[in-house]
Design a protein that fits this description.
heterodimer; A: alpha/beta; globular; B: 5-stranded antiparallel beta sheet
């Protein structure tokens, strides 16, 4: 159970090696936090990440999680609740960026990435939502992206998976209205992280720590959607309505 | 969505309104997330919530109070409020043996929290005056409980946060009074040392004693306060007053929903200054009404809304006598933070009772309201918790909404004894609440 200061007792990061997910876990951890669970594909990397995590007196645990193995997700969430009690905050942070050029050359690889980013999120998101509904409380934080707000030709496979995820998360949040549980959709811009290592930063680039701070604030305020940085909301309000010929010629990658 | 009086950490439960006849069935049909009974929702934190489970609200019957004037014993339904009790008892020359700072608590809630009042140093807490309880157990049976019949369950229930069963009816010893007025001595005190000395010296001469401390005053004014002490007035003392046993408290105002947070340093400072200045330096034998002396905030409905949507915490702890340094440290730390809202309450407790989870113990108890949205609150509370626990003190479960399972284990060394008694009464873990989950009360 979270306390009056909104400090969660149990935090689960799905995609437990994600820089943003780890930063959110660290920022949310307070004196009342008992468990931080990193659910990730590569348990060894997760264990290293857990060791480096600054979460105060809380105990870090690592569990195996494969986003594309959708059949395992309901069981995984049950196990988490069994082992750690009520889940106060679950962060859905996994995703693959991939390379647009590779996807265009290898459609099967594109489908695999989309399966992880979208189908995996749908399956585990629903499983988590069912658990939170049963609990009568809890928050699901979904890492969407501005890339899904208006999809660009430079990364439309990734962008389309995030567009789907964003729509799914919004609908899931609406379906939880009145249940005591809620969903926060986070739309960061370009984030300097291991996912974007080696790429040139886009304008208005941000950091995992800045995203985490915005998430903590939004959870306290009971927000449903946030952009990081907040100005991207205005930028994309314009982008969304640009005519196609203009959008295609925009000098953005 | 349910919250406590502090309006923090809401959770959803299936709320079922029942009467005595339908109570057992409603409880029996609770699902895996268990059941809990809720009274008037005046505990500040999550004590009367059960996320995802069943929350039962028991209706108070119309003829719920019986007073036996030959023994002074009162038998009442657990859903009866202290408001109803006082309206019934005071005109008949009786008073509740212990009243908290609000009369909007139920008898059942008063037992579950083992409430205390301004007379703790003389009379102990509510459980000390309880004679018997009728309780619905987890297995569906109703038992008549006295201290003699099952001391373990008796003391596990007093202060047991409703986690041993549902008290349906209880009998307690009422206090005989001559009038519905109090005779009160008020003293304005300029600093903390003088306050502690005055209370330690003179409290025993009064049935009721409490000090209101300005926690925004710092430096040489640290701990400046107004000490009020008194007792029920005799008929002679109210000669000239109309109808000596009249009692009819009214609502004076209500805070509307949706007001923004009105509590900030400027507003609190202005209020505290006004309140300290208007108190007489020394006034002896003032006649006050029960409402003014015991329940001053009850005249304003929904006063908890003044903290806006973030709500607030009421931080209450006790440290044993001899730990005055820790008490002063806490007061100083709160004063330095500048987060304290309105006046804080300081009181000397007498010895505690055998309830393993009953809060009071011989020592000093301080209560301070803190807005939940205040910056740096988490660090402040952690610092205060350490000071309290290191001094051998503990937190009041009925008020708590922030602390941790470790803090409770340290503050209540007999927790495991309580857990065993509870487990015997409810091996299937039917009774559960948000506070029980948050503080891992149920072993």
């Amino acid at each position: 159970m979270r306390n009056a200061l909104d400090e969660p007792q149990t935090i689960v990061v799905l995609g437990g090696t994600s820089d943003i997910g780890l930063a959110i876990a660290a920022a949310l951890s307070g004196p009342a936090t008992r468990h931080v669970v990193l659910a990730c594909r590569d348990v060894d990397t997760g264990t290293a990440a857990a060791a480096a995590l600054d979460i105060g007196p809380a105990e870090a645990s690592v569990v195996a999680f494969e986003a594309t193995d959708t059949a395992s997700h309901a069981g995984l969430v049950d196990d988490l609740a069994e082992r750690f009690g009520d889940l106060d905050v679950v962060v859905l942070a996994f995703g693959v960026l991939g390379s647009q050029a590779t996807f265009e050359a290898d459609p099967a690889a594109a489908a695999a990435a989309v399966t992880a980013n979208y189908s995996g999120a749908v399956s585990v998101g629903l499983a988590v939502a069912n658990r939170l509904r049963t609990q009568g409380h809890g928050r699901l934080v979904v890492l969407s992206s501005v890339a899904g707000e208006r999809v660009r030709k430079a990364n439309f496979v990734y962008g389309s998976s995030k567009a789907g995820l964003d729509a799914f998360a919004q609908g899931l949040g609406d379906s939880l209205a009145g249940s005591g549980a809620s969903v926060l959709v986070v739309r960061p811009g370009w984030v300097a992280s291991s996912m974007t290592a080696g790429l040139d930063p886009a304008p208005m680039a941000t950091t995992p720590e800045a995203v985490a701070a915005a998430v903590v604030k939004a959870l306290r305020a009971g927000r449903r959607t946030i952009w990081v940085p907040g100005t991207l909301r205005l930028v994309f309000a314009v982008f969304r309505h640009l005519p196609g010929p203009v959008w295609r010629r925009m000098p953005i990658r | 969505m349910l919250t406590g009086w502090g309006r923090t950490a809401p959770s959803r439960a299936d709320v079922v309104d029942v009467d005595d006849a339908s109570l057992a069935e409603a409880v029996a049909s609770a699902g895996a997330r268990g059941a809990l009974v809720r009274g008037l929702g005046r505990s500040y934190g999550d004590a009367a919530q059960n996320a995802g489970g069943t929350v039962v609200r028991l209706a108070s019957p119309t003829r719920g109070i019986q007073l036996d004037t030959s023994t002074g014993l009162v038998t009442a339904h657990a859903a009866v409020s202290f408001d109803e009790l006082l309206r019934h008892l005071v005109p008949r020359g009786y008073f509740v043996p212990v009243t908290p700072g609000t009369r909007f608590v139920t008898l059942g809630g008063a037992i579950a929290s083992d409430v205390h009042g301004k007379n703790h140093h003389v009379d102990g807490s509510f459980g000390n005056h309880l004679r018997s309880m009728s309780m619905l157990m987890a297995d569906g049976a109703t038992v008549e409980l006295t201290e003699e019949s099952d001391p373990e369950l008796w003391w596990a229930t007093i202060g047991g946060m409703g986690l041993t069963g549902v008290v349906v009816e209880a009998t307690f010893a009422a206090l005989r009074i001559e009038t519905s007025r109090c005779v009160v001595d008020t003293t304005r005190i300029d600093d903390l040392d003088a306050l502690l000395a005055t209370m330690a010296e003179g409290d025993e001469q009064y049935r009721y004693s409490v000090a209101w401390v300005d926690l925004l005053a710092t430096g040489k004014h640290l701990g400046r306060s107004v000490l009020t002490r008194g007792d029920h007035a005799s008929v002679v003392q109210v000669t000239g007053h109309r109808d000596p046993t009249a009692y009819g408290p009214r609502m004076l105002a209500a805070v509307p929903p949706g007001v923004p947070n009105l509590i900030n340093r400027a507003s609190v400072k202005a209020f505290n200054e006004m309140w300290f200045r208007k108190a007489p330096r020394r006034l002896v034998g003032e006649i006050q009404s029960i409402t003014r002396f015991f329940h001053p905030l009850d005249g304003i409905a929904a006063w908890n809304r003044v903290y806006g949507r973030h709500g607030f915490l009421q931080y209450q702890f006790v440290v044993p006598f001899g730990a005055e340094a820790a008490l002063c440290g806490v007061i100083e730390r709160v004063a330095r933070s500048g987060d304290a809202s309105f006046v804080a309450v300081l009181k000397r407790f007498g010895p505690g009772n055998p309830g393993p989870l009953s809060f009071p113990m011989a020592g000093w108890t301080l209560t301070v309201d803190l807005p939940a949205g205040a910056r740096g609150l988490s660090e402040l509370l952690r610092d205060l918790d350490d000071r309290v626990l290191d001094a051998g003190g503990r937190h009041y479960l009925a008020k708590d909404s922030h602390t941790t399972a470790d803090s409770i284990r340290r503050g209540y060394p007999r927790l495991s004894e309580w857990q065993e008694a509870r487990h015997k009464a409810d091996p299937g873990r039917l009774w559960i609440s948000d506070i029980a989950r948050r503080l891992e009360l149920i072993g």
